[in-house]
Amino acid sequence: MDDFYNQKELEAKLADEKLRANALAAELEAMRGSPSWQAVELMRLKGKGAQKLTAIFRAVAVFFLRLVPGYGLRSRFDKNGLNRAKEVIQASKLFDPDWYGQQNGDGTKGPAAHFLQVGAHADLDPGLLFQTGWYRRTNPDIGTQNPLLHFLEVGAGEGRCGWSTERVLAVQKPYFLDCARALTAASPDREFPTLRGGQRVQVFASSKGNSFFLHIRDMVCRGLVEAGVAAEIADETTPITTGVAHPIIVAPHEFFYLGAGVKLADDSVLSHGICINTEQIQTAWFARTFPFLTKAAGILDFNVQNAALLADMGLPVRFLNPGFLPNDSVLGLQDKLPNESATQSFDGSIMGSPPSREAALRDRPIDILFVGAQTPRRARFFADAAAILADKECAIQLTD
Q1: How far apart, in whole angstroms, are the C-alpha atoms of residue 109 and residue 176?
Q2: What does residue 109 show for φ and ψ, rounded to 5 degrees?
Q3: What are the residue ranges of helices labelled H in the chain?
Q4: What are the CA-CA distances from residue 215 to residues 148, 186, 207 (Å)?
Q5: Which helix (H) or strand (E) holds 374?
Q6: Terminal Cα-to-Cα distance of the chain (whole angstroms)
Q7: What whole-number distance in Å separates Cα of residue 168 and Cα of residue 172?
Q8: Are 161 and 282 in contact (CB under 8 A)?
Q9: pLDDT tens for residues 253-265?
Q10: Which residues pair with residue 230 across a beta bridge?
Q11: Would you place residue 65 in the very low, low, confident or very high pLDDT band (cuts 50, 70, 90)?
């Protein structure tokens, strides 16, 4: 398992290096097209005398520019702009003042002001997850803008990741190698919205997005009803009614971006809402989700490593482990699997009567089940994991 994990780390590092190379190539191409580059190039071609004149001109220009306080290092914030920027990064949970101060020092300015005026321009990271330099290199169009502010105010909504796969693997590695530790971290002693029997709850998912999220919404509703909560199925066209304890939003990366769901992306909804995150942290979909998670009253995550990392960032999160409802017609024990498109390729040993709940693992017809769309990334994963999967009973269906 360690060898496989190390291989994936190396592959992620190689992919990140390719992104950096592409970003630098794009930056160089843009520089070559600038008037100043072309003027210098013209002078260079006119002979050695012009080259010497160019060198003198550059040296003089750099000398005088260095006399300007903070040139090339500090962002130009007025007092109001600096205070607003500090509020934005501190609310994001991506800026960790204690971590930043320990790593970089903060002089007399305080960590947030130091990062905004000095640290970001030196490509210092604001916390464990966000990568200032990596974001700048992979998004050369942001120019001299502060990378973290750009991510929070523009980039996240556009699906731009603020961190590399390599960084995510590094910060989550302890939780992958020790699931018990991840489970403990994902259930922090932190305030979380409470649902009680008899309370009304609306569970939302977009009708315009992936149908899988509608199934998750229905599953959550069934579980809540079983627990005595008056849960109602809803979508982006359903008004949020008064008397509802907490609106629950499945897959915010779709719900708040599609159709009428855009109008519901409001602090008044999120401040008492619960968001169910379905996305891996290294993806563009999670980047689109992240701003809503930082404003939500609570977060539920299907991935225990995700939940542990979000808890480390100080967010109100719990690991959501979909359960078994013995008396439910859908989530209870079934006599056989439904005959649907996702199961049509399964053989008789799988489609027949299921083993008892007490059956040993070796007697169950499936060790690993995966049903999903065919993508190059998934194809590479299954090819790389072939040696690990070879001795398992796998039911893998990749659709076009």
Answers
A1: 38
A2: -85, -25
A3: 2-32, 35-45, 48-65, 79-91, 97-104, 111-117, 132-138, 147-150, 165-177, 179-185, 211-226, 252-255, 267-270, 284-293, 304-312, 348-351, 376-384, 386-389
A4: 35, 24, 11
A5: none
A6: 30
A7: 6
A8: yes
A9: 999 999 999 988 8
A10: 200
A11: very low
| Cβ-contact 313, 188 below 8 angstroms | no
The pLDDT, as a whole number, for residue 69 is 37
The pLDDT assigned to 8 comes to: 54
Residue 352 has pLDDT above 60, yes or no: yes
Cα-flanking dihedrals φ and ψ of residue 201, to 5°? -140, 140
C-beta of residue 325 within 8 angstroms of C-beta of residue 332: yes
Residue 278 three-state SS: coil
Give me the sign of the Cα torsion angle 172, 173, 175, 179.
positive
Instruction: Please say whether the beta carbons of 395 and 369 come within 8 A.
Output: yes
Contact 344, 335 (CB under 8 A): no
Q: For residue range 103-161, list pLDDT tens digits in order.
A: 876 565 788 888 998 889 889 999 999 999 999 999 999 988 999 999 999 999 999 99
DSSP for residue 188:
-
pLDDT at 246 over 70: yes
Please report, for residues 37, 332, 342, the alpha-carbon distance to residue 396 in angstroms, rounded to integers and kept in the order given: 54, 23, 10
Distance CA 170, CA 65 (A): 39
Looking at residue 294, its amino acid is: T
Cα distances (angstroms) measured from residue 63 to each of 43, 58, 71, 183, 326: 21, 9, 11, 56, 77
Structure tokens at 246: 């907490």
CB of 261 closer than 8 Å to CB of 288: no
Write the single-letter amino acid at 186.
A
